[in-house]
Amino acid sequence: MTTDATLASHLQELRRGTVVVASLTVLRAPGYGYSLLETLSEAGFEVEANTLYPLLRRLESQGLLTSSWNTDEARPRKFYTTTPQGDAIAEALRGEWARLDEAITDLSATRTKE
What we know:
Domain Transcription regulator PadR N-terminal: 26-88
Number of strands: 3
Largest sheet: 3 strands, antiparallel
Mean pLDDT: 92
Protein name: PadR family transcriptional regulator
CATH superfamily: Winged helix-like DNA-binding domain superfamily/Winged helix DNA-binding domain
Strand content: 5-15%
Low-confidence stretches: none
InterPro entries: Metal_resp_DNA-bind_regulator, Tscrpt_reg_PadR_N, WH-like_DNA-bd_sf, WH_DNA-bd_sf
Order of helices and strands: HEHHEEH
């Protein structure tokens, strides 16, 4: 396995969890799948539709999202919104992310001093 392939594999693992946090954060306001893909992409989260849609269904089955169909426009769209439990999970995950970021920053600073 080349270094590029190894890096790509680790980056994919790292991004997998961050997409959950990002999706729960964005969906505090109702949104549908394609708009979420665009919002995440604009923020720097490159995620494929075939990854995002199953994730949305999984988060809904876990009780972290609710969904409803909007049929007011020509094309019906399924809108997702975080539940109170989803908001709490997102807040906890963002807190843990901040804690881990600080720990890695501290480790990096310690290693540079040696």
